[in-house]
């Protein structure tokens, strides 16, 4: 559904524009209802889900037994921090100040289409992540049969 990398700018109010190429798909798959939450696995990145996809993720995460600390941590970062947003007439969504601060998002950022969701990266975190290489020791069994 969503793919591609776009350099974006957060305005002085903390809004970021969904790229024009994705706006029709966002409207179609989510009725312009999106959810922004933390990426619990990587610092400097927020996840932006279409509402229907978010509901699936939310329900799976909430079904985890909360007796385990790692489950509670995941639930807090994903569900507890989730913010519902809708693009305005210019296709901009308001990124909550607390999420911007925690992810280190400033004026320059990168929006990645990742299939079922977007990832909104701080420019610095994105550059650091993109410069990492995958070593032979990191290749998993699942990756071995990929024809890249």
From TrEMBL:
Highest taxon in the source lineage: Bacteria
Keyword Isomerase carried by entry: no
Gene3D superfamilies to which the protein is assigned, alphabetical: Transcriptional regulator MraZ domain
Pfam families tied to this protein: MraZ
UniProt keyword list: Cell cycle, Cell division, Cytoplasm, DNA-binding, Repeat, Transcription, Transcription regulation
One GO molecular-function entry: transcription cis-regulatory region binding
Protein name, as recorded: Transcriptional regulator MraZ
Native source organism of the sequence: Dokdonella koreensis DS-123
Lineage, uppermost ranks: Bacteria, Pseudomonadati, Pseudomonadota, Gammaproteobacteria, Lysobacterales
